Amino acid sequence: MAGGVRTAAETEVNRKARKAGIASFVGTTVEWYDFYIYGTASALVFGQVFFSSTLDPGVATLLSFITLWAGFLARPLGGIIFGHFGDKLGRKTTLVTTLLLMGVASVGVGLLPGYAQIGIWAPILLTLLRIVQGLAVGGEWGGAVLVASENAPKNKGILYSAFAQQGSPAGNLLSTFVFFLLAQMPTPDFIMYGWRIAFLASAILIVIGLVIRLTLEESDQMKAVKAANKESKLPLREVLVKYWPLVLLGAGALPLVQVTYFKNTFALAWATEDLGFERSAFLGVIAIALVVQFIVQPFGALLVQNMDMRKAITLLVVPEFVLMPLMFFAIQTGSFWVAVIGMSLATIPHAMFYAAIGGILARVFPARIRYTGLSLSYQLCSMVVAGGTPALAQWIVNSTGSIVGVAIASAAYAAVSLVCTLILLQKTGWRADQPSVAEQADIDELEALRESEAVKDGEAPSAPAAEPSGLSESAAASMRN
């Protein structure tokens, strides 16, 4: 009988885990599609559409990349705002809100008149809409990772968090595919209205994402926090006062994730404007590399889940020191297939690292402030590193006339990520099959609360008491796991 009960409970946990994983994947795919189409459009058309035609093309592209950066500057604010509500009200409501916000901003970009129609208001409004996108994705990522990891079966949080991470290459691939098709249009038509189709189509994707996300169940760990009345009064203050070293280390672990903007944004502009690649041809290079990323990425989470995480991370990151710089020289040959091989090989290490890092960072913070801490770490790196990456690379090329400096910068990203991740694991725990320091603290706090409630009810502390404060069995089990 007991065995049957355990089997039924395990079946329910696995069902919820799969549902949460799929919902996280679909939602993040839609969010990242919207976020990435802006990057592609900023490399291909925004300099021509939203800035004065009297500007040098390289300067116009640089200004376009600066509007791209505005979204990244807004992401920490989005992480703070939605992290607060995610830790106070729950993950589901917050994720529905971020999806709606992203949809409104993307459709707005698709309808926005250009510089020829409204002058200086064109880049101003474009920047404002990009900021709204940044706020939305700033709140999205942390919640999606937590919904997947917090609902995962015991000791499989890193593996299930990869569902949310898989939305990034899927959204990126979808955005690249859409622009690949649109780029077949005659150039004047593409510049005039073709690129707008990619943004207006996001309205359909948002509806699909909302239908799936509205059926999402709250994570069991969040239910446990709320049932025990353990919500943080001001999550941001608690994170900054008690956990700021972990936030900085978490942000320092993530530059390797942001090398995607060397590839998919800067390299697209560089290859088509300076090296003579056709738009559709280089979008094809990016699309093939994204297919490679989508296929190999989950294996990174699998590797980290099943071995000493310090060794796994080292194995994943070290090859990038060589492969990312080599990618630029492969593109510089002007050969389509050499560029494909170079970009595909450079994609493998950082894609596998990306699959695991969300789950690793989710283990760093206690459940009551986890959304805020996780989001703040990720979005700080995005603000400082990701958004500035295309602008930095373009500035290096404009200043030196050489790609060498860009290659060196890309290797430096990997070095920073490796050092910070290893220090973080040393502080929080490096065994995926065991609770982290923060998770163990949650378990201890829950057990202390259970014993306290048992004493109040006149029971022996060791007796199997009812769940305190309305805590469900599944929520309590989730906290213990």
From TrEMBL:
Q: Which UniProt keywords apply?
A: Cell membrane, Membrane, Transmembrane, Transmembrane helix, Transport
* Top-level taxon of origin: Bacteria
**Positions of the region Disordered?**
453-481
Q: Which InterPro entries match?
A: MFS_dom, MFS_sugar_transport-like, MFS_trans_sf
Q: Where in the cell is it found?
A: Cell membrane
Its transmembrane ranges are 59-82, 94-112, 118-137, 158-183, 195-216, 243-261, 281-304, 313-331, 337-364, 376-397, 403-425
Q: What is this protein called?
A: MFS transporter
Top-down, what is the taxonomic lineage of the species of origin? Bacteria, Bacillati, Actinomycetota, Actinomycetes, Micrococcales
